[in-house]
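User: Please predict the structure of the protein below. I'd like the answer in structure-token form so I can feed it into my own downstream comparison script.

Assistant: Understood. Taking the following sequence of 260 residues as input:
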Amino acid sequence: MKILELAEPGPLRDSGVSAILAGTKTAMTGLPAIYEKGGEPLPAAGERYSVIDSEGKPVAVIELTRVATEPIGAIGDAYARAEGRGYRDAADWRSAHEDFFRSDFVAEAPHREERVVIPVPGINRAVIQAVNVSRSIADDVRAVFITDEPDDIGPMQENWEKHLPGVPLVVVESPYRALVGPLSAYLDVLDAAWPPGKLEPITFVILPEYVARHRWELLLYNQSVKRLRSALLGRPHTVVVAVPYRREEPAETREEPAEA
């Protein structure tokens, strides 16, 4: 059975072990780069660990029920509180973990940069929401507009700069109304342009996605997203994230006849 040593021996480990034994600590956080540097696989759901206290004694056995790799900016308040260390919210959690991961106790790990690519069909509320989410993940955010209509490029660039300044818009012309092939080719170009010998970045592909009110809308809006997601799953160093947006019902306006 694998050994779990929370932080370094002392008060920090003792408080974590106590929270596990009390049942108030139901989540833990690790740094993937440390596993990569040590040539170890990431933990997996179903694995069991013997929890060791500051004296090196086993005090409990835990089982992992779910393991996920997420950017630190994506952590929410519920997860922060589940760590059982009294964090007020996600911001408090991030502050503490960033300090810990930079401490002398944590072995220096290679820095893997992050970037975000958003395929966009135009500008709408779903796209704007996807851009806002992307900005919370990484500083390097760019949108990709794939079109087979050259006349659409100028108006799209002008509209994009007006509504979303500061986010680069890359235009890819595709003569066959294809989406998957041109976007995959663009990602290949990004990878090829990365400096040799530098650790490859994590690329987040953010997919604006409608939560449809009606079945026909699901077919209309989301088929391309599904094909793209399927094509990118398994791509090295790539995380595919769908950002749902629900289209609201338009408000009805009724006019009452004026009384004579």
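That's the full token string. The beta strands are 2-5, 48-52, 58-63, 114-120, 140-147, 169-173, 202-211, 238-246.
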